[in-house]
Amino acid sequence: MQVMHRKGIRVPKAIVLGGYGLIGLACMRALSRAGFEVSGVGRSMRSANAVDLSVEWIIRDIPTITVEEWSAILDGVDVIVNASGALQDGARDDLEAIHVTAVARLVEAAARLPVRIVQISAAGVSESASTAFFRTKARGDMILSSGAKNWIILRPTLVLSQEAYGGTALLRAASALPLIQPHVLASAQIQTVYVGDVAAAVVASAQGQIRSGTIADITEQDTHTFPDLLAKVRRWQGWSGPVASPTIPAALVSAVGKIADLLGHLGWRSPLRTTALKALADGIRGDPGAWAKAGGSSCRSLDDTLALLPATRQERLFSRAYVALPLAIGTLAIFWLLSGLITLIDPARAMSVLAERAVSSWVIAPTVLGGAVADILLGIGILWRPWSRHAALGMLGLSSAYLIGSLFAAPDLWADPLGPMVKVLPGMTLAALVWLMLEER
């Protein structure tokens, strides 16, 4: 990479891994404002373009980058910020690969170069932790601290941001439930940190204000129980107080986590997976003392963070849509799967609908059986995250074909008292909403 100069002054260069993520994006913006020439690394050009930053993007799956490739990428770079990570193993994520292998390769490449590595880890990491997330993060931190020449490890607690993703989206959604406020994880102790304070810590580290070898939690001073945190977020969003606060049994919470884990193997990164629930139950706490001792600025309290992020109508709409989206996807999946399976259970009955209306016999069987198979495939497809938007679009297309075909083959069905054709329209609307609402970040 070429080094830029402004009026003879060398412009420092920074690369952010996971640059379009919640923390990575905040770091990229803060580093740009601080005068760095910033590049981002991520595996989706679509997600990179969506953040609308005028920076160079390196589109790669980070765990696949070799030591030799890292050496070329890091040429002329002053700082690399590792904000990449995954919560739990799944169809698209491998914790060992992203938290350990990728860090080891990066450290090996950086050992021959004058580059500072700023690692975004997590408060509470330990090789004996209760989740693979914390254990693999801890191993990555150990590889960095023992092998790199110039490094800093920052460990934020629960990060709050104007962006909504993962844990921040879960907080918003749980707080926005109509009429009720679930009483769950009552003993969990949580500390928060504003994403801007994390980004400021990264900038201070990148500028050399923090000495190499620093390991510090980035967090507010205060601690909150999880129910109190939900209540504060609910008030911040502007909702009225709940009518009821039912206690959610631990067994039900565990069951929800296991279901979310299964969905993780279908590509869905639910914040309700067992790793997230276990982390919350264990508590998310940190000690701001090491950061203060290193010369870092203190972090905002929860109240100050929420005051900095005024809740808007868009905020409230998102929070309730976040709850409604999985319900819509589940409803569509069940509807289309049952539609196809019921037809295959008794295909003769379905064929008789067309036969009674003098449709050519050679058309009937392929139409009925092909339609049933297509229904099942679409019902399965919308549950597989990489295909979900395409499946929703396919539902719209196939529903349109059914409606148009009925106008020619069975127009009388439109006047049927049970409204079999009219009822297709709400399903199309639901599929359209899912197609519009599904996005990565």
From TrEMBL:
The keyword Transmembrane helix applies. Residues 18-166 form the NAD(P)-binding domain. GO terms for molecular function: protein-containing complex binding. It comes from the Bacteria. Keywords: Membrane, Transmembrane, Transmembrane helix. InterPro entries: ComplexI_NDUFA9_subunit, DoxX-like, NAD(P)-bd_dom, NAD(P)-bd_dom_sf. The chain crosses the membrane at residues 321-342, 362-384, 391-409, 421-438. This is Putative NADH-flavin reductase.
